[in-house]
Design a protein that fits this description.
- The complex is a heterodimer.
- Chain A is mostly helical.
- Chain A contains 15 helices and no strands.
- Chain B is built from 8 helices and 10 strands.
- In chain B, the strands form 2 sheets. Chain B has a 6-stranded mixed sheet, sandwiched between helices.
- Classes of the chains: A mainly alpha, B alpha/beta.
- Chains A and B meet through helix 10 and helix 11 of A and helix 2 and strand 6 of B.
Chain lengths: ~325, ~250
Amino acid sequence: MDKMSTRWTSLLLAALTIACAAFSFLLGPYHIEAAALLKGLAGGHGIDGTIAREIRLPRTGLALVVGAALGASGAALQALFRNPLASPDVTGVTSCAGLGAVVALYFGFAAESPALLPAFAILGALASAALLYLLSRAGAGVLALVLAGVAISSLATALTALALSFARNPYAMSEMVLWMMGSLKDHTLADLAFAAPLVALGIGLLLTASRGLDALTLGEEAAHSLGIDVGGIRGRVVIGVALAAGAATAAAGAVSFVGLVVPHLLRPFYGYRPARLMLPSALGGALLVTASDLLVRSVDPGEQLRLGVVTALLGAPFFFWLILKLRREA
Amino acid sequence: MSAVLSFENAGAAYGGRVALQGITAGFEAGKITGIVGPNGAGKTTLLRAALGLLPLAAGSIRIMDRPLAQWSREALARTIAYLPQGGEAHWPVPVRDLVMLGRLPHRPAFSAPSAADEEAVDDALARCDAAAFAARRLDALSAGERARVLFARALATRAPILLADEPAAFLDPAHQLRLMAMLREEARRGTAVAVTLHDLSLASRHCDGILVLHEGRIAAHDLSDATLANVFGIAAVRADAAVVPWRLV
């Protein structure tokens, strides 16, 4: 791919993301003129202000932040494992983050300090990312990693269900669906306020690893011989993914397949280079989640349909196709 | 001439067993040193130790008259270019971008390639006869072409020391001879070249010095009949009926 098409892809991604975000902000059950909504966002007075600031902004903002976190995490994990099947959900990172969030919420930790919710989610994500990393160091191949991810995420899902059944909150079981499927419904500005900085920090950390991830294209020993601190790169990716995907999951539950699909689709447009793919994947993730959330809201205004169901319906067949394609190439 | 990279009584363990023992040797500027030996003799381990990938259990390694331990990772990367065994690229990146990775040791973080970087890449591509497919993707090349591109990546670093691990494996005879010619050209420019080889005829014809490793030790510095028998358990064929060493036509 030449520079021209790379630039056009980036421009198109940015334009579509802005368009979807604007549409997402303007769409809602309570019809308000765009001008009034923007005025409300700026001034914050009256019912328009409340709706703009307390309902529309958190929803659109979270869609962008969650998508960016998942897209960038997927790109970084695929580069680190040198494996197009790696992503925060396939590797079990998001389900472990969900488990952490559930433990924090339903056992009263989050009530003591709101910061403990993302902290627990990030710890969960960190544990699974580190475990996978150790497995890959021990020489586990592509298939073993995916299987380990399946095992980790089944275990995390079971533990989440277990935690919820022991929780003293009577609504806990019904909220399980939210954690396992992900949703952007009924979020507050506070959710956006904790998620956005943590996701930004995580993506920032991943960006500092991008040069090393490029070098890892040649394998770990060649990367070392090019002056790359390979251990440091791994650490930054594991922590960056835990921060970004952990915070995103703490805010919106487990939104699946975004981190898998987006980097894979964009890769050919960025010359297959991990470093160049990172930010476009964040942008593409933001676009995919915002668009999926729009789809949820327009198809089912009552919102029994979950965001994660839509992304999984799009992503799971893609995953299947990807496995078949990799088998053919092998 | 003094060696730019020297081992002094170096020993190392790998995977719980002694992999190198009492190695004293040097790689000289402008020379090609061939490292040969049976499988598991410690050829790759020797190169990995020189790169600092494997800690020494005994002895020392000096590079440009400074102990290896005193080198920063970045400075070492500018001084030694390394071509790993079975060199591979995990993503089908465009050829030029791949060769540009060889310039990483010279480039500050988050900077675009400088004119010097571009020039070094062009030069490396031309020397490896790979300029024609600089814009193609790696997965659109044949195995021989890919090997040339990976070799160009190592040359692009312009390091005074080049370590190549089995670069001739999987290449057909003509590509092997071209590879040895490229190594010779690199040595002629003053680089100290060390190359591990399985093909003893390539080693004996194209290297200035030979290091025969056997069970982690230096067994010989030549490929005499005694060495072939004792280390490799073979005898050289010098008959005319057999196909023995070839040259490019």
